[in-house]
Amino acid sequence: MQEYSVRRARTTDVPKIQALVAPLVQERILLGKESVVFYEAVQEFRVIEDADGALIGCGALHVMWEDLGEVRTLAVTAEWLGRGVGHALMDRLEADARELGLSRLFCLTFEVPFFARHGFTDMGSETVDPLVYAELVRSHDEGVAEFLDLARVKPNTLGNTRMVKRLV
User: Which residues form the N-acetyltransferase domain (predicted)?
Assistant: First the structure.
């Protein structure tokens, strides 16, 4: 019998997602977001519930371009760390990315070993085609700015690693 299950997030999950990520925001591992941002992006989220229905993990897949998505707000409760919850979330988000036709995933993270185990590598100075860059730079999305390594988001990215994975 499985101890947990993954499903699409619902609007009623937003307060639970916020409560789940709050300790990570306090530790400056994740950036804090307003409630409205979570509600606007609820369709991007997957959540994991334990056998009793308690929310124990979350993660989002945000499409940035025709071939590129970002894994965002990946979090697991402290009690469930090391029990495969994060891996189950990543597997589901990667399946979602493939279903959408994406061929690359991006993340900005302090958790380099976790993402490396999932095939992500430090993207270093990797960039995109100049025409795509010209389109992406118009976005008001902070994740896009972080992907492009724009100066205005440098305070958000200090200590984080920009990682990318090519999906096969």
Answer: 4-138
d(CA 56, CA 85): 8
What the block records as the tokens of 11 is: 């609007």
Nearest-angstrom CA–CA distance, 159 and 80: 25
The residue written with tokens 């306090």 in the block is 26
Name the residue ranges covered by the structural domains of the chain: 4-166
Residue with tokens 């959540």: 47
pTM: 0.87
pLDDT tens sequence across 68-106 = 999 999 999 999 999 999 999 999 999 999 999 999 999
CA distance 52 to 3: 9
How far apart are the C-alpha atoms of 79 and 101, rounded to whole Å?
Answer: 34
**Which amino acid, residue 73?**
T
Token match 């990520």: residue?
Answer: 21
